[in-house]
Recover the amino acids of this structure.
């Protein structure tokens, strides 16, 4: 996410509930495994991130907007990024983290762990 996009959401925190938690992890800008970013402008307003081109293409077939490569994954030498799905959210709310403690806290609260398919530096 760019600084401009982050600032956009934080400025609207009263409406969106978003707050900045600072940098979640570091990524590569131009080398490594591409991580694609898609956006559901029609229904949920959510973004998805995947290094699987077939998964990206499936989202696009369903009407999601292809926002291109968001960043590059570090591959097997990087830190695992955990993808967790909210247990009751109707809009398939996901949270991504590199921290095991955060992952474990969310799992204890009923979140579901899914494979992100990418790593961070």
């Amino acid at each position: 996410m760019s600084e401009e996009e982050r600032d956009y959401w934080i400025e609207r925190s009263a409406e969106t509930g978003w707050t900045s938690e600072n940098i979640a992890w570091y990524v590569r800008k131009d080398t490594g495994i591409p991580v694609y970013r898609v956006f559901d402008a029609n229904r949920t307003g959510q973004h998805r991130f995947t290094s699987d081109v077939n998964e990206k293409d499936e989202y696009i077939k369903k009407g999601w907007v292809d926002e291109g490569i968001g960043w590059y994954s570090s591959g097997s030498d990087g830190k695992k990024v955990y993808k967790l799905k909210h247990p009751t959210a109707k809009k398939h709310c996901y949270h991504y983290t590199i921290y095991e403690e955060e992952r474990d806290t969310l799992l204890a609260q009923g979140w579901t762990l899914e494979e992100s398919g990418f790593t961070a530096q």
User: Anything to note?
Assistant: The first helix runs from residue 3 to 11.
